[in-house]
């Protein structure tokens, strides 16, 4: 996980799995009443994509922080991704609890979506930082630029 691109792609994959889980969850809830108590085993099946995506993103961000990967990875951004993941998992736990007790509380869904928004913003910031770093590497180094200019001056003097 030390390669910054691998970290970013892994977080993106976790977010994608989570998004597919949200879609499946929405379709499932459209066909089933939420006012009926749903056993946790059924909820694990319905929400498994969401949980898996959340755990992937949180695990990758924590592993990256634990490995102290600092290349193109500002730690503050990774901590924001971790915070978003923790908020999502807390919201998911509360949501599962409410479904198991035959009611649905919008606050719990909002908690999940807020955590997801923080995580997505963190991911986008990681991409932005990596993009800037890549652009910086493509710029000529001042010494190379000075050498290039002196070579041009030599060639002009020789003519």
Description:
The chain starts with a helix and ends with a helix. Helices cover 82% and strands 0% of the residues. It has helices at residues 4-31, 40-66, 75-100, 106-138, 142-158. Helix 1 (4-31) runs antiparallel to helix 2 (40-66) and helix 1 packs antiparallel against helix 4. The protein is elongated. With 159 residues, it is mostly helical.
What is the CATH top level name? Answer: Mainly Alpha
Count all strands and give the number: 0
Low-confidence stretches: none
Oligomer: single chain
Per the CATH scheme, the topology name is Four Helix Bundle (Hemerythrin (Met), subunit A)
Mean pLDDT: 81
What number of domains? 1
Briefly note the structural class of the backbone. Answer: mainly alpha
- Main beta sheet strand tally, sense and closure: none
Head-to-tail CA distance between termini: 53 Å
Total DSSP helices: 5
User: Which value, in Å, is the CA radius of gyration?
Assistant: 23 Å
**Percent helix among the residues?**
over 70%
Written as H for each helix and E for each strand, in order along the chain, the element string is HHHHH
What CATH architecture label applies?
Answer: Up-down Bundle
